[in-house]
């Protein structure tokens, strides 16, 4: 009987929720129940899900394609693109092309391969490109350390190359017996190469000694020469090359020595060297001629003061002081000694007219010339 009552009760709970549920209220006046608010979640804009697309050479699929692309740009002069090339061989080639395009050898320094780097530099800046003729041949011989680069310039070029690089084997390539022996004597520091020349004529040996002396820049080797010609040539070379009057004193005889002094004084424009001259001819000494030449070369009238013969001294002053092209200053006029006062006055007068500086007129001792120099003095 109990079981019979419980079954209907359990069925009622399942179907209708008979216990503890509030009854549904009827909708009054046709009103609509409030709607449930819709919540919209905005998308996450902080995350970019789009995959970037690489452009240009960087967008190529393979390393080989990228390298080829960068190399193409490098060939147009883009060094930056060459630096992006991965393959070393391709990158070297790229830098070479860029250097050629820009005509700038500095880019060649980025090439790792020594042979390619050297070839690149030599192509952009060829060695010895600024030299010409024999100088270029000698330059190339030194650059490549190869006497054959002397080409058609032969003995002269090979002699200079061998002596400057101390290459004894290159001396043997010289066809001239004299130059060959001089080269060998210099490079090996052995004068026997000169001494072993044929003894039939001392001039050949003397020429050899002279050449070695010049190469060594050692005037003491001139001592080995015995003929007048080469004794003079050897010592005069050092006198002029080193502005050394003492070398002139070792020449063959007095006349040769005085001639050397004269040449040296003119070359150096140093009249004091003229004072070393001792010989003279018909009252017109070589020393006077020497000073006159130096005075004319320098345009300095005070140099004339050392001329011994009055006639020649006055001619010297006249040539310089009265020359419209002379370029001397007050210090030159000041340096003219009192014995030549008239020319000292003339110097101030001519300089005043040339420069317009009337204060120079006050230095003139001759009253008539002073008034002529500055007419304003007449009003005082």
Task: Characterise this structure.
There is one protein chain. Among the domains are: 71 residues; 63 residues, no CATH class; 44 residues, no CATH class. The chain is built from 19 helices and no strands. The longest helix has 15 residues. α7 runs parallel beside α9. The chain is mostly helical.
Give me the secondary-structure topology.
Blueprint: H1 2-16, H2 63-74, H3 79-82, H4 88-102, H5 114-124, H6 133-144, H7 154-165, H8 168-171, H9 177-188, H10 192-195, H11 202-216, H12 228-241, H13 245-248, H14 254-268, H15 286-298, H16 310-321, H17 330-335, H18 341-355, H19 367-373
Helix pairs in contact: 2-4, 4-5, 6-7, 7-9, 9-11, 11-12, 12-14, 14-15, 15-16, 16-18
Provide the helix percentage. 40-55%
The count of β-strands is 0
| Mean pLDDT over all positions | 85
Tell me the β content: under 5%
Tertiary shape? flat
Radius of gyration, Cα only, in angstroms? Answer: 51 Å
Overview features:
0% strand, mainly alpha, flat
Briefly, what is this?
By secondary structure, the protein is mainly alpha-helical. The chain contains 19 helices and no strands. Mean pLDDT is 85; it is low at 11-16.
């Amino acid at each position: 009987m109990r079981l019979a009552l419980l079954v209907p009760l359990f069925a009622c709970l399942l179907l209708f929720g008979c216990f503890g549920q509030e009854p549904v209220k009827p909708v009054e006046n046709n009103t609509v129940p409030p709607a449930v608010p819709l919540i919209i979640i905005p998308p996450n804009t902080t995350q970019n899900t789009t995959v970037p697309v690489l452009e240009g050479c960087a967008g190529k699929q393979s390393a080989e394609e990228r390298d080829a692309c960068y190399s193409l740009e490098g060939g147009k002069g883009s060094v930056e693109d060459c630096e992006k090339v991965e393959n070393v061989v391709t990158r070297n080639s790229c830098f070479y092309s860029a250097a050629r395009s820009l005509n700038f050898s500095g880019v060649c320094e980025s090439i790792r391969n020594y042979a390619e780097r050297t070839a690149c530099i030599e192509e952009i800046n060829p060695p010895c490109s600024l030299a010409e003729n024999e100088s270029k041949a000698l330059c190339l011989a030194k650059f490549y350390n190869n006497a054959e680069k002397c080409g058609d310039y032969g003995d002269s070029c090979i002699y200079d190359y061998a002596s400057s690089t101390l290459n004894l084997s290159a001396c043997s390539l010289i066809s001239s017996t004299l130059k060959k022996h001089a080269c060998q004597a210099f490079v090996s520091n052995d004068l026997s190469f000169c001494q072993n020349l044929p003894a039939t004529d001392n001039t050949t040996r003397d020429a050899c000694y002279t050449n070695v002396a010049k190469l060594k820049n050692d005037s003491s080797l001139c001592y080995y020469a015995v003929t007048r010609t080469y004794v003079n040539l050897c010592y005069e070379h050092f006198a002029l090359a080193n502005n050394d009057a003492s070398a002139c004193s070792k020449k063959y005889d007095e006349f040769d020595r005085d001639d050397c002094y004269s040449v040296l004084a003119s070359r150096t424009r140093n009249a004091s060297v003229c004072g070393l001259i001792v010989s003279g001819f018909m009252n017109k000494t070589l020393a006077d001629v020497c000073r006159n030449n130096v005075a004319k070369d320098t345009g300095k009238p005070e140099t004339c003061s050392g001329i011994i013969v009055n006639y020649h001294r006055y001619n010297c002053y006249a040539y310089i002081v009265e020359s419209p092209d002379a370029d001397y200053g007050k210090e030159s006029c000041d340096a003219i000694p009192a014995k030549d006062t008239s020319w000292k006055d003339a110097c101030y007068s001519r300089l005043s007219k040339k420069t317009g500086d009337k204060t120079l007129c006050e230095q003139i001792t001759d009253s008539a010339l002073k008034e002529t120099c500055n007419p304003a003095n007449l009003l005082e």
